[in-house]
Design a protein that fits this description.
By secondary structure, this protein is of the alpha/beta class. The chain has a 3-stranded parallel sheet. Keywords: Glycosidase, Hydrolase.
């Protein structure tokens, strides 16, 4: 499920567990990607994925939709990535799961990239 938002966390975990089991039924070596809820901390699934093998946590960062970033220039946005997002991502990466930044909507609007 890509970018879950406004979902019950227990329901999301149940969905991911069933999806994980379905993938494992056919492929013990495939990576299973689970996306953190957009409206929750990026570490919310860490304890949940500890029991799984070959899991990737997909995190998305949307500075674009937060008023905090409205008056920042490109360099200030980049500094947020270096100083805040990097430590957040290292926390996600400290488990048995890999982490993947699926989207980082910080420079799309600022640079048009």
């Amino acid at each position: 499920m890509n970018e879950p938002q406004g979902v019950n966390l227990d329901s999301l975990k149940k969905y991911y567990k069933e999806a994980y089991d379905a993938v494992r039924k056919y492929s013990p070596n495939a990576y299973v990607i689970m996306s953190n809820p957009l409206d929750a901390d990026s570490k919310v699934l860490l304890s949940f994925v500890n029991g799984f093998n070959k899991v990737v946590l997909d995190v998305h960062y949307y500075n674009l939709y937060s008023d905090r970033f409205d008056n920042m220039n490109v360099q200030q946005n980049i500094d947020i990535i270096r100083n805040e997002r990097a430590s957040d991502l290292s926390g996600v990466s400290s488990t048995n799961a890999l982490s993947f930044v699926g989207k980082n909507e910080i420079l799309v609007e600022k640079l048009g990239v």
